[in-house]
């Protein structure tokens, strides 16, 4: 079953963050990741949304997403993101529709 990552990011240092962006896709796609949305101008329908970037990503499964997130290559790369921004990142299971 598919799994989704939602990241809410406040980028403070675009130059350092660009080092994260430059190599992100290489590590991400090796684990079956697919970017569904990267948006810096979301349309807020309710509540507050004070993030400079919102990301929605899909993986073929929760284990694949965790394997990507925990891999040495991504964690080394994530150090640039951590240095340049503050983030909330969650992993969600896909909704399993009830056939009846």
Question: Describe it for me?
Answer:
- By secondary structure, the protein is α+β, with helices and mostly antiparallel strands.
- The protein has a single domain (3-42, 49-93), classed as 2-Layer Sandwich (Alpha-Beta Plaits).
- It has three helices and four strands.
- It has a four-stranded antiparallel β-sheet.
- The radius of gyration is 14 Å and the shape is flat.
- The model has no long low-confidence stretch (mean pLDDT 95).
Provide the fold topology.
Elements: E1 3-11, H1 14-29, E2 34-39, E3 53-59, H2 62-70, H3 72-84, E4 85-93
Antiparallel strand pairs: 1-3, 1-4, 2-3
Descriptive terms for the model:
DUF1330; alpha+beta; 4 strands; 100 residues; flat; 4-stranded antiparallel β-sheet; Alpha-Beta Plaits; Dimeric_a/b-barrel
A few lines on this structure:
The protein has 100 residues and is an alpha+beta fold.
Strand order of the largest sheet: 2-3-1-4
Radius of gyration: 14 Å
Q: What is the string of SSEs from the N terminus onward?
A: EHEEHHE
- Taking the alpha carbons of the first and last residues, their distance comes to 19 Å
CATH class: Alpha Beta
Counting helices, strands and paired strands, the structural category is: alpha+beta
Can you tell me the overall shape? flat
CATH 2nd-level architecture: 2-Layer Sandwich
What's the CATH topology label? Alpha-Beta Plaits
> What profile does the largest beta sheet have?
4 strands, antiparallel
Q: Helix content range of the residues, please?
A: 25-40%
| Domains (count) | 1
Beta content comes to 25-35%
Strand tally is 4
Low-confidence sequence ranges: none
Number of helices: 3
Oligomeric status: single chain
Overall pLDDT score? 95
Domain DUF1330: 3-94
Pfam family, one: DUF1330
InterPro entries: Dimeric_a/b-barrel, DUF1330
Protein name: DUF1330 domain-containing protein
């Amino acid at each position: 079953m598919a799994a989704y990552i939602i990241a809410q990011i406040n980028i403070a240092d675009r130059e350092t963050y660009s080092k994260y962006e430059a190599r992100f896709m290489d590590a991400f796609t090796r684990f079956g990741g697919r970017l569904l949305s990267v948006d810096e101008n979301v349309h807020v329908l309710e509540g507050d949304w004070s993030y400079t970037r919102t990301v929605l990503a899909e993986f073929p499964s929760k284990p694949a997403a965790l394997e990507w997130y925990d891999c040495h290559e991504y964690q080394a790369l994530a150090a640039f993101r951590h240095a340049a921004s503050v983030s909330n990142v969650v992993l969600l299971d896909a909704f399993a529709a009830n056939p009846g």
